[in-house]
Amino acid sequence: MAAAIDFYFDFSSPYGYFAATHIEQLAAKYDRDVEWHPILLGPVFKTTGSTPLTEVPMKGDYAFHDFERSARFHRIPYRRPEAFPIPTQAAARAVLWVRSKQGADKASQLAKRIYTAYFVDGINIGEPMRLVEIAQQANIDTTGLADGINSLPIKNQLKAEVDLAMARGVFGSPFVIVDGESFWGFDRFDQLDAFLRDGKI
Amino acid sequence: MAAAIDFYFDFSSPYGYFAATHIEQLAAKYDRDVEWHPILLGPVFKTTGSTPLTEVPMKGDYAFHDFERSARFHRIPYRRPEAFPIPTQAAARAVLWVRSKQGADKASQLAKRIYTAYFVDGINIGEPMRLVEIAQQANIDTTGLADGINSLPIKNQLKAEVDLAMARGVFGSPFVIVDGESFWGFDRFDQLDAFLRDGKI
Fold first, then answer.
1. What ipTM does this complex have?
2. Which first-to-last residue range defines the signal peptide (chains A, B) (predicted)?
3. Cα separation of B60 and B53, whole Å?
4. Could you read off the pLDDT of B160-200 as tens digits, one per residue?
């Protein structure tokens, strides 16, 4: 099997969520695995001097409208969360903890479940107790999860993951790297598809 | 005929150029006219607090790569201009002057020609004399054009056009407004197409 697709996302990114609903099907079409990398846009935006889209004058209203319209266009279930944006450290750490204890498959299952909880069910995934409930519903063994989310090793691991992502040039969500080629945004999935198909673009 | 499509663009915007190569064909498919609105991203970015994509840390290199890749993907001729970005006041004013003197069709012909000159032929369209040459090649009567570009009425008109665009919510290039619906970016032309087809999205 060819190299895995590195998929970077922040849990408060609607376009990251849209991408998460499509990435595995796209990867499977070309016999690729997906490595799920939850990151934090906060430190990334500090480096790039960016502001979250929805907080930029004029762009904010458009962005919320575009989230809903893009969801309809791509037939993705979506409900605007009441709390938005939210801190996503706990969610990212939960996924890293599950990955370290139970492997990548369980971790990606949890990631997808967290995204659905936030962008469909309106659950505030910034609260660690909600994350434990979400993990339980995804049939994940949550013994130690609540402590794990707050443990120093997992905190340090997330920091290192974000640093590594930035070192690889990741500056937004979703962000895909495969075979040395980078794609920013769900709206580049058409080009990603062509690249996976042809091996060039 | 249904209402025209308002098409906003800055002449130094590669995505604006890509959109300019597609907008008329798309409009014709749904029996619409296009109103070409050259604007300036400078004052817009002052309002939104934005920085040109290519000047943002980390995003710059990606952006230049994405321009070339997107051009190949959409089979649009494109060569990275040596001078980039450039001031586009003169180009925008040239189009406004031609529109006021010779009508909208001549103005849109000139706009397309200016984009090609910059993004295919590598001509520095920031220089008024180059604009006169480009207009001549487009079979436009250029008597008075050089003076027109620097005339107060045309300068004021461009300011007013930019203010009006911002008042309508335009914050980037390309930006399309039709039947009250706004679309930012060449990568929303798939949704624009669906909206024109179905009257909703």
1. 0.94
2. none
3. 6
4. 999 999 999 999 999 999 999 999 999 999 999 999 999 99
With contact defined as beta carbons under 8 Å apart, do A147 and A160 qualify? no
Degrees to nearest 5, angle at CA B175 with B185 and B164: 155
pLDDT digits (tens, 9 = 90+) for A122-171: 999 999 999 999 999 999 999 999 999 999 999 999 999 999 999 999 99
Q: How many CB atoms lie within 10 A of CB B177?
A: 19
Which domains are present in chain B? 5-198 (3.40.30.10)
Where residue B120 falls (left for φ over 0; alpha for ψ -120 to 50; beta otherwise) is alpha
CB A41 within 8 A of CB A34: no
Write out chain A residues lying below 8 Å of B184, CB-based: 62, 66
> Considering only CB atoms, which chain A residues are within 8 Å of B191?
69-70, 73
Tell whether A58 lies on the interface with B, counting CB pairs under 8 A: yes
